[in-house]
Amino acid sequence: MTARPITTVKTIVTGIEEAGAGTKLFTLADPDQWELPPFKPGAHIDLHLPNGLVRTYSLCNEPADNARYVIAVKREAEGRGGSRALHDDVRVGEVIGVSLPRGGLEAGADIARCVFVAGGIGVTPFLSMALHLARTKQADFKLHLIVREEVPLAAQLGPLIKEGRVVVHRTSRTGRPDLAALVGEGGSATMVACCGPEGMIDDFERVTAAWPAANVHIERFIAAAPVLDPDAQPFTLSLSRTGTEIQVRAGQTMLAALQEGGIDIATSCCGGICGACKVGWLEGKPVHRDRILSPYERERYLMACVAGSDADRLVLDL
Amino acid sequence: MLDTTIGAGSAQGATQLGWTGVVRFLHFTPRAFLPMRAAEAIALVAGRGIEGDRYMIGNEEGFYSHKPEEGRQVTLFELETLVALKRDAGIELGPEEHRRNVTVEGVPLNHLVGRRFWLGETLLEATRLSVPCRHIEEITGKAIFDPLINRSGLNCRILQGGIVRVGDTVRNAA
Ligand code: FES
């Protein structure tokens, strides 16, 4: 059996549309139009691109539209290559694996008003949020879009601009708007959020510094680092039968590192109770964390899905 | 939904010869991670799996684990567990969320490993207990790993295929 475990949702590109300002909209769907895993408005997914790059993009369709993931990608000629690959190489029909959606904004029941501030292509997470709020009428909202000149996703934003829900500020004509005036007075019934270039986010943070923290959201373009156990340490796995060395990053599971290294380990629960991933160890100091091995067994075996290491090096019987 | 389903004509009264249960919900999904879809009836194929489901043997696309198991052609779950989860842990889990195919009521799944039983017109052999998995927590966003230890359902092999419908009887074949 050479199959690898499935770690991404399989989608195919069903549509690519020009969306203005050097931006393209990509629609991803299940090959059989099955519903996709659900997401919150403003959530993001990682795309595993055909060239091996993994890039994170906000979903910009409405969550109730559950058969598609729509992302907007601006071509960054000087970027790290993800947007170039999508713009230049990806065609309709291409298979792209995506992660389960993460994050997103949820206006709690006590939120009556939302104010969103977006810079340029930073509008993408708020498009999904705006469509969601417009449909559910859960809270009143206003989206301030700050651009130099051209509006990205003009066709998608058009109806909302007409209704006055989206206000476009063109800095080339009117200069930078005053963020404090845009967000207005803070209060427990108001939620504000910002996504855009670093400078804009810094300003926004200053302006909302005195607000209740739970009501202020900031989306940065660079995906936030995953929450790591502050005590987690990287370590090296040494495989005694082949001499292979595999690095386990801080916060990564031993299992994930082994699989990344092409080692075939069976799994089932991934939580230290089923025993499928049991591996022998020869040297080192494992931190076990499983819930099934006896003290005697722990002298010889560990469960790769949950075990860690108390030393820099752990030798496995693999 | 659970409250109205539980006890609505369940299979009491047939307990003299062991147990008799009933099929409450049927679900399937073609690929890993995708939401499960409810069905009124599913087609079981002997030795292979459920038509259209990810655990159908020969369908290379559907396995979360990379070792397709012959003994996991169809999976069962107890409705009683969903009720207990709500009562004991305050977690509301829908029958589509536990990601097993058949939700039954009145069937002692944990006692069936190694035994044969009828699911409607199909004959199954229970191969092993399912284990909870972190993957389901990731998909549902609910902390169900611990509460589901020892009551995470049953994996079965299909000995005789056929159509299974909601409301079908489940009974011991031994
Ligand atoms: S996969 Fe179950 S114990 Fe590791």
From TrEMBL, chain B:
Example GO molecular function: pyridoxal phosphate binding
Domain MOSC span(s) in chain numbering: 37-173
Gene3D superfamilies referenced in this protein's UniProt entry, alphabetically: PK beta-barrel domain-like (2.40.33.20)
PROSITE patterns: MOSC
Signal peptide extent: none
Pfam families: MOSC (PF03473)
Superkingdom assignment: Bacteria
Protein name per its UniProtKB record: MOSC domain-containing protein
Species of origin: Bradyrhizobium symbiodeficiens
